[in-house]
Design a protein that fits this description.
The protein is an alpha+beta fold. It contains nine helices and six strands; from the N terminus they run E-H-E-E-H-H-E-H-H-H-H-H-E-E-H. Helix 6 runs antiparallel to helix 7.
Length: about 220
Amino acid sequence: MSDKLKIDIVSDVSCPWCIIGYQSLSAALRQLAPQISADITWHPFELNSAMPAEGEDLGEHIHKKYGSSKSDMEQTRNMITDRGAALGFKFNFKDDGRIYNTFNAHRLLYWSKQFGKQTELKLALFGLYFTEGGDPSNIEQLLKVVEKVRLPVEEARQLLQSDELTQEVRAEQAKYLSMDISSVPTFIINDKFKITGGQPVETFVEVLNEIAIKELA
């Protein structure tokens, strides 16, 4: 018997552990197929909601937020790059990298659900920021991603040039904050179980198996 799980992923497109976590989840689901499959929905979480439009130097931001030294940051970047490569995702960190406001990206992701392309868009946004070194707050760059995944560009442009879906995205953010979700990625399975962080594939396989057994009992 096949069991389809409902998986809600709370994440930000500027979070490297979010793409690592998703790649691990995806690999786990491939291992568990066809017995276990999933319907995946992405939900917004802004790591830096007060980030100005022009963004901030990434190294300065991390030092200010976490107190990390240059050596610490280099070790972390190397570890993230290796984890990503092992899971089929390419990180291209640069010394002059920047971090940006991601609210417009979250509005696009909310909008894309109606077309059934939310995961495709999310992965393309991760690629824009982490692989291409792009700016996920820039409307023209976002529209190129929209075109890449074959979503209606002019409809997306109208959305981004307006306040459309602002209240809806803010409401989703408030909902998950009220559930005491304070770090990402957070994977919520069948509205009951949580997996947090960029866990390895083996952890997802084990936990999803356990959840499927409980849900089928």
